[in-house]
Amino acid sequence: MNEKNTYYITTPIYYPSDKLHIGHSYTTVACDALARFKRMQGKKVMFLTGTDEHGQKIQDKAAAAGVTPKQYVDNIVEGAGGVKDLWKLMNISYDRFIRTTDDYHIASCQKIFQKLYDQGDIYKSVYKGHYCKPCESFWTDSQLKDGKCPDCGGDVYEAEEEAYFFKTGKYADRLLKYYEDHPAFIQPETRKNEMIAFINQGLQDTCVSRTSVSWGIPVPFDPGHTMYVWVDALSNYISALGYGNDQYNDYDAFWPADLHMVGKEILRFHTILWPAMLMALDLPLPERVFGHGWLLLDGGKMSKSKGNVVDPAVLCERYSVDAIRYFLLREIPFGNDGVFSNEALIARINSDLANDLGNLLSRTVAMAEKYFGGTLPAERAAGEFDDDLVKTVSEMPAKVAACMDDLLIPQALQEVFKAIQRANKYIDETAPWALAKDEANRDRLAMVLYNLCEALRFATVLLAPFLPDTADKMAGQLGLSEADRAWSDLRFGGKADYTVHKGDALFPRIDAAKELAELAAAHEAQVKAAQEKAAAAEKAAAPAPAAAENIEHQPEVSFDDFCKVELRVAQVLTCETLPESKKLLKMTLFDGERERTILSGIAKWYKPEDLIGRKVGIVANLAPRPMMKGKYVSEGMVMAADMPDGGASVVFFPDDVLPGSAIH
Length: 664
What we know:
Its EC number is 6.1.1.10. Its main location: cytoplasm. Residues 513-540 form a coiled coil. The chain is α+β, with helices and mostly antiparallel strands. Among the domains are: 342-489, Isoleucyl-tRNA Synthetase, Domain 1; 559-653, CATH 2.40.50.140. The strands form seven sheets. It has a six-stranded parallel sheet with strand order 3-2-1-12-13-7, sandwiched between helices. A hairpin with a 4-residue loop joins β21 (625-627) and β22. The chain is elongated and about 135 Å long.
């Protein structure tokens, strides 16, 4: 691991094609908790997040909105309720926010692309294959799953265009050796096995430019090409530190990164393409790349188009920011897929936050005020149950730190709440209300409440990275100074005196039945709105029906005149070509009453065997017409439509329609 007293942690840079949802918040809150924890331990932290703002999807979205791509992403990122507002709301303590449209990042990317090209790691060729627009990924036939994108399951389309390629395959052996020598590089372990299998099936070179997408960073030596997403996006981790630009000067201090946190769907790019690029640039690789699972809703991955997304801003307003942070960090098994449900959210709030934590604080402070006027006396007497509580609380910091080092975030919170639950049990064991009835127990009562305050002080310190607002409220009620909250001197008994101040409940209990009914109704309305929006968009995007060119109109006829035309179904009995004509077919048809002869100019498109036995539409009351200088008489007309190529398409009827049936 990095021996310097620094810690560099990154989220993926998010794609701002629309507002972010709770799944994006999950990743960012996890990184924020880790960054805050490392700062608390005394590390100099660089916490980077940002947005990946180029590509075809944003180009299309901007065009549909009638704005430029830059205007579109500016609104999503910087506008009211946008990405930056969301992170401010959720108390995300990032140190740097990068946008791939930033000038310094563009300069870095162009220098990187040029260097890789100059040394032969990038070359020009032609891409042929399949492309998924939502994932911005190219796929071969063998990589598709049932003809769909293997990542998102969406449709792909055929793509063929001139492109530049990075020689990813050149680094296959070096990557496998690196994985072997650095077993902690890819986490969790199951993801590493997936990456090894992907390389072993044959590592293809990577398309790194497009000619069909104008919204991107121009290739410096070939401006007809723009950089394809991954060279642009992945380079943010070093451009944000000043690599290849003069904006920042932190590269030497923070690189290599201690942790890239990404969703499992983009782990392949971060553990194969990105390391290969760094090898080509002769730069160190990050210490760890962690691929977390998806946050699922309604049995599947969240999708804006399906309406099954959860707006974190709405939840934060309804339940508090820290309640949502806690649920995301405690409920979801880190590294695996997790399920978001309103039932689980409310259960966590009521059980862990309101009952366990909230009640412990409110009971302790209330008893200290009731029995001692808020200030605990210095005279205290130890007794039964003290040692077990002190042991549990004292062991908590080391256990939490070990969990955080191993990225076991839910388990870290579990350790904190074990101590909180032990403190609640301690109240039941020592029964302070009973001790208060006898003045002789005053010193013992003081010790019990002091031990509870110390347990809460430890909880305040250790919850601060996860629930920063709540920790501040707890510190206020417990009368803690900044020194009292220092990680470096966290020992039981470290604060000699307590003067507490009663405050509002940390997390009021929620009426679960009422709340769930309201949330279910809101979710149903959201899904319905998304379905209506998708249907409207599909209708708007549908191409206008193709129409015949040069339509010639006949004079208008009255309804009575039209009713004089008799259209009926007839069955073709015989059909033959005529030696006198290459255009005409001679047919004998049964019209339900009699046989009749009709000559039709469709010989160029139909053979006699195509028509014999078929049922066709005819104009039955057309006056007989001599043809071929009177040699033949045609007793009607077969109905057919003009085709775009100048041909004709006969109107056929199914077998169960009887000859003689009227056509209306």
